[in-house]
């Protein structure tokens, strides 16, 4: 798999805005951002309303994913290009969903909404109308998703990569610094986890670093790329970006994203936690 | 476009006494600019990033200490150093 099979630049997207086989999808942490403006012909997926089970803390299931993509007018043979704010945190999270449910051709817009805006490229208010499809999803691929017991069993044996900021890792903060300080019951990190903040993967403009730079980053931090890896953050969106880097760009075979992440682990009774660096 | 507002967005519902708030606005020729503000810790490590509001405002809930704010707007990048204190507003006006 080459880098362009999973990651496209803004020029590529610009050239395919009217390509009927390409569907551009915006997924933002700020779910109202799309209403303000978006890339022309892009549809929206709301990570809270569309991708989460409305009652339990879990994903939508296979049937729910089929219904969602059918309603959005996305077909199985479409090339889906995901982008969003916050350096593609939630676009990466959605990318991971698309892979989990077996979509054939899904890619990220390198740099996401920020790069598009900093380039002063066109953004519009008009929303496209796409005819509904009959989308068929695959059963969820559990090989790329970690649960809490996977994390506990990985302590001291597998690579655990905590992609939160250094202050969240050390326990000084419970959440990113632009959000109010609430979330898990306890601060800290999973013992033996290495703190490699997601931002180290990206340049200031949100584009991802080269494959060589990324490989050097993880090797310098002591991550053996031949060993299985679990990435986590607070709710699994930033770690989806690291999952994308390790699994999709660097080709590491067994990488799981722990979407329960610190909001689950830091609220469990009796599990080991470390504080500090 | 309405003009730039001083300070950060509305703080209704936030327990200000327990927060360490860094906020302000980004302007160009005294008009608000749509862009992004990054918060870097004292080692220069990325900590957070927010888009500016329609009125050019931004806000971070941080911790006490030294920080760098990096404003990214089309065609310009500007850094500002600040020291934040719990229970106080650290106000930063960034002209690009």
UniProtKB/TrEMBL annotation, chain B:
A Pfam match: DUF1416
Superkingdom, natural source: Bacteria
Protein name according to UniProt: DUF1416 domain-containing protein
Organism expressing this protein natively: Kitasatospora cheerisanensis KCTC 2395
């Amino acid at each position: 798999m080459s880098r362009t099979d999973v990651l496209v630049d803004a020029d590529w997207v610009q050239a395919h805005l009217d390509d009927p086989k390409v569907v551009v999808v915006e997924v933002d942490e700020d779910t109202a951002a799309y209403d303000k403006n978006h890339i022309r012909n892009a549809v929206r997926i709301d990570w809270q309303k569309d991708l989460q089970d409305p009652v339990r803390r879990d994903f939508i299931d296979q049937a729910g994913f089929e219904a969602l993509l059918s309603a959005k007018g996305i077909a199985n043979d479409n090339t889906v290009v995901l982008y969003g704010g916050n350096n593609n945190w939630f676009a990466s999270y959605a990318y991971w969903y698309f892979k989990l449910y077996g979509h054939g051709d899904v890619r990220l817009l390198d740099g996401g909404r920020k790069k598009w805006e900093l380039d002063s490229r066109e953004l519009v208010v008009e929303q496209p109308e796409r005819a509904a499809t009959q989308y068929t999803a695959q059963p969820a691929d559990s090989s790329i998703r970690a649960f809490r017991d996977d994390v506990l069993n990985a302590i001291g044996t597998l690579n655990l990569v905590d992609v939160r900021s250094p202050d969240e890792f050390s326990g000084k903060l419970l959440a990113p610094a632009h959000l109010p300080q609430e979330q898990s019951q306890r601060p800290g990190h999973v013992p033996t986890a290495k703190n490699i903040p997601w931002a180290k993967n990206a340049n200031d403009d949100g584009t991802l670093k080269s494959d060589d730079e990324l490989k050097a980053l993880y090797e310098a931090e002591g991550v053996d790329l031949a060993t299985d890896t679990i990435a986590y953050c607070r709710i699994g969106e930033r770690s989806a970006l690291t999952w994308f880097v390790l699994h999709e760009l660097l080709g590491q075979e067994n990488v799981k994203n722990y979407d329960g992440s610190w909001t689950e682990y830091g609220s469990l009774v009796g599990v080991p936690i470390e504080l500090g660096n | 476009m309405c003009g730039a507002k001083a300070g950060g967005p509305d703080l209704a519902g936030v327990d200000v006494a327990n927060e360490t708030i860094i906020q302000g606005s980004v302007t160009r020729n005294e008009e608000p600019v749509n862009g992004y503000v990054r918060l870097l810790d004292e080692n220069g490590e990325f900590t957070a990033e927010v888009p500016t509001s329609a009125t050019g405002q931004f806000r971070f809930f941080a911790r006490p200490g030294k920080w760098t704010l990096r404003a990214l707007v089309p065609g310009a990048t500007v850094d500002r150093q600040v020291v934040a204190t719990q229970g106080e507003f650290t106000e930063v006006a960034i002209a690009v």
